[in-house]
UniProtKB/TrEMBL annotation:
Keywords: Phosphoprotein
Modification 4-aspartylphosphate occurs at: D68
Record InterPro entries: CheY-like_superfamily, Sig_transdc_resp-reg_receiver, TCS_response_regulator
Biological-process GO terms, alphabetical: phosphorelay signal transduction system
Name of this chain's protein: Response regulator
CDD domains for this protein: REC_Rcp-like
Domain Response regulatory: 7-134
Pfam families: Response_reg (PF00072)
Organism annotation: Chlorogloeopsis fritschii PCC 6912
Amino acid sequence: MDKPAYTVLVAEDNPGDVLLVRRTLLKANFSHVLQIVVDGEAAIAYLAGEGDYADRARFPLPSLLLLDLKMPRKSGFDVLEWLQQQMVPRLAVVVLTTSTKNEDIERAYALGAKAYLVKPITLERFMKALETLELS
């Protein structure tokens, strides 16, 4: 059974990882609008609806944010800290990173991440994480 359509914002500076996320979502039969930003500053602008992302018809608020921690301009942690101060309705954040450091994992969860996945991710692990989220 297909899932309902929703918007996924991918904040990832590595084109290869973006491609893997796109393929994983396709394999999982998720109907979605996929939006890509390449750094934390653009992720914040998108979520705030500012600048190039002001048109919510073209750039709708996401239900899911797939967030890399290590990005240029602003990090994934900067984005998580910004989100804590905002009223972004029904946004689930899944961290996708290469970091296995306990302090990064603990900090991400403390800042509101709903799941923390270490790259490379498998379809099974990704699906298991998504199943625990209530996406709208």
